Backbone:
């Protein structure tokens, strides 16, 4: 009897281990609003939607655009894209995927019933035509550099959504049906764990890890505690935690993966102000800022200097870039040439937001560095919404300390084109350069990735040479990964690109 009891217990333990091995424990920092790729404007909704839906295209691990639901594609001419869809793809409810779903998704995107910012991405799409169940013709009003990338947006099932009265409130936003590697089996609830089940009919292959648990953990310190308790398989770390708060047990359980993040921080000047209209003054400030020192102090060296507006490693990043060096003596000389000295120092105020201690500390370090060359910089901090609504958007500032995200295919129009210098526009510093404007508009009509990249490399250098911003730093993204997980291949697009191939031992 004792023998059978031990065997029974052993079987229970083994089955629990198997369950654990087939389940990925992750966290999300906020609860999704709607799991719908057409409406997912917050990071949590977009993250969960990424497991459930596919677009026509996606990035491969090297950042090149390849087919996803599209098996192949070609340009008939500069304004006509032909797409062949994969056969044998089925929705989570077993219905077949076809060209009807793509046409319907495009039409829904333009429905007055749907309120979404993603509609603007399709401004140059003239029509989406179904040739047959597996072939599409997409017509554009002009050649468009985003002709492929806009179709990375997830596609919706027409057989379900065509029955929906209100796309903003439908239950399908809580219990979505997609073609992706994972699916929901019950509607998600706000601030509760989301359980994703592996899609056994996924068109590439079923994910090797059969289940993903997404735990809602809103506080970063709580996430770190949960990670240290080994209750998460993957979690983000900050440099202080890496350098001072990890023991041998943590490092033996987790592998650390470190890569440049997809964001940068900058000091931006209000170019409408007389004080900053002289390029030499902006250049003097740039030479006075030791960006490496900022990275060493703030991030324990876990970061890289930002040299310009586009992502390092992408096609838009110049390969022959000659970075500006730290040179306080040159800064002093430029200041003297501009009429500033000990008796008449350059003075300005920088405004940044609360809720981001790193950015505030960066402002304090810059303040100290500028003081060494005789520049007096005052710091003011404000709550984020008040900062946006009363300082940034109305242009009530001399300088701001802020950040932007970085993407593999950048779109310079909203930030760097003169048209963005308007109320509510993203060119809130008031940057105007006719040659930059011309190159941005010209680039919009280029569908050849290499030609587009060359134009954006020129843009990069022109913008940097004007000193509208002081590009400061790109912090590193540091991820702890359970060593039991095999198959992870870090790349320029992160670590999740091949998640269906991961195995948890």
Residues:
């Amino acid at each position: 009897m004792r023998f059978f009891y031990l065997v029974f217990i052993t079987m229970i333990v083994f089955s629990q281990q198997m369950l654990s091995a087939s389940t990925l424990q992750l966290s999300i920092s906020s609860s999704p609003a709607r799991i719908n790729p057409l409406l997912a404007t917050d990071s949590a909704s977009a993250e969960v939607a990424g497991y459930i839906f596919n677009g026509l295209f996606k990035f491969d691990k090297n950042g090149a655009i390849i087919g996803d639901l599209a098996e192949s594609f070609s340009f008939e001419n500069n304004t006509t894209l032909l797409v062949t869809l994969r056969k044998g793809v089925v929705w989570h409810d077993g219905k077949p995927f076809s060209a009807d779903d793509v046409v319907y998704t495009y039409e829904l995107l333009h429905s007055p019933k749907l309120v979404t910012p993603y509609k603007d991405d399709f401004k140059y799409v003239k029509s989406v035509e179904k040739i047959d169940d597996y072939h599409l013709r997409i017509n554009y009003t002009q050649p468009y550099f985003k002709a492929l990338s806009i179709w990375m947006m997830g596609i919706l099932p027409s057989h379900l959504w065509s029955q929906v009265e209100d796309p903003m409130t439908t239950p399908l936003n809580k219990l979505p049906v997609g073609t992706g590697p994972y699916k929901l089996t019950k509607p998600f609830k706000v601030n509760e764990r989301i359980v994703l089940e592996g899609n056994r009919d996924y068109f590439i292959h079923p994910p090797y890890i059969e289940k993903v648990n997404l735990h809602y953990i809103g506080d970063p310190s709580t996430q770190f505690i949960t990670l240290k308790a080994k209750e998460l398989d993957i979690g983000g770390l900050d440099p202080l935690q890496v350098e001072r708060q990890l023991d041998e047990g943590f490092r033996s359980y987790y592998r650390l993966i470190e890569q440049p993040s997809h964001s940068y921080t900058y000091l931006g000047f209000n170019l409408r102000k007389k004080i900053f209209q002289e390029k030499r003054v902006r250049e003097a400030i740039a030479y006075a800022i030791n960006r490496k020192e900022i990275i060493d102090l703030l991030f324990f060296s876990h970061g890289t200097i930002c040299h310009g507006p586009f992502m390092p490693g992408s096609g838009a990043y110049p390969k022959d870039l000659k970075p500006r060096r730290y040179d306080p003596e040159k800064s002093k000389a430029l200041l003297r040439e501009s009429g500033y000295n000990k008796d008449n120092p350059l003075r300005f105020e920088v405004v940044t937001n609360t809720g981001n201690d790193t950015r505030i500390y960066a402002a304090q370090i810059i303040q100290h560095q500028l003081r060494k060359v005789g520049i007096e910089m005052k710091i003011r901090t404000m709550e984020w919404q008040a900062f946006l609504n009363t300082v940034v958007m109305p242009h009530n500032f001399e300088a701001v300390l802020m950040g932007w995200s970085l993407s593999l295919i950048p779109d310079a129009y909203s930030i760097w084109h003169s048209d963005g210098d308007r109320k509510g526009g993203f060119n809130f510093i008031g940057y105007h350069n006719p040659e930059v404007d011309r190159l941005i508009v010209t680039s919009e009509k280029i569908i050849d990735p290499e030609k587009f990249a060359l134009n954006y490399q020129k843009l990069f250098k022109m913008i940097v040479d004007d000193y509208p911003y002081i590009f400061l730093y790109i912090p590193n993204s540091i991820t702890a990964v359970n060593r039991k997980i095999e198959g992870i291949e870090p790349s320029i697009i992160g670590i999740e690109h091949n998640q269906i191939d991961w195995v948890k031992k």
About this structure: The domain at 25-208+484-504 is CATH 3.40.190.10 (D-Maltodextrin-Binding Protein; domain 2). Residues 1-20 have pLDDT under 50 and may be disordered.
